[in-house]
Amino acid sequence: MINEFKNFIAKGNVMDMAVGIIIGAAFTAIVTSLVSDLINPIIGVITGGIDFSNLFVNLGEGEFASLAAAREAGAPVFAYGAFITAVINFLIIAFVVFLLVKLVNRVKEAAETPVEEAPAAPAGPSELDVLLEIRDALKK
After folding, report:
1. Distance CA 24, CA 17 (A)
2. In whole angstroms, what is the distance from residue 99 CA to residue 106 CA?
3. What span, in angstroms and rounded, lies between the C-alpha atoms of 124 and 44?
4. What is the pLDDT along the chain (140 residues), one digit of tens a residue?
5. DSSP β-bridge partners for residue 77
């Protein structure tokens, strides 16, 4: 059973998956920063400064200035803004991952495509052939 487990772990697919998960976890921080620090402010400017993450409907009693205040008070809220933000983040992350996969596939194809050799130039007469022709011409 231990040998079977070793064989399973040693397979390339498992190792590729492990590397992918580690890279994906590290990449998440980059994409999160891209979305929250670069893209969401642009979307905020386009939509007139609306912060989607703070949009909510209070399902309980009382008035709350922000979603954080409503949650801190323990009020039941329908936080549709957080859902909209999560959907936007997902779409952006999915698009970035799509671009990365497309880039990796292009690099793989370039690496796998054999370099075409130039067709061999037609071989002319060898040096010996030329010398023999000269000799024959001189004999005449």
Report:
1. 10
2. 10
3. 72
4. 888 877 776 766 777 787 788 888 887 788 778 777 887 788 778 877 777 778 888 888 888 888 888 888 888 888 888 888 888 878 887 887 788 889 888 988 888 877 676 666 667 788 888 888 888 888 87
5. 58
- Size of the chain, expressed as the number of residues it contains: 140
Q: Residue 65 is encoded by which pair of tokens? A: 């200035």
Across the chain, the runs of DSSP E, i.e. the strands, are: 57-58, 77-78
Amino acid 118 reads A
The DSSP letter of residue 78 is E
Residues 6+ apart with CB under 8 A from 17: none
Distance of CA 85 to the CA centre of its chain: 21
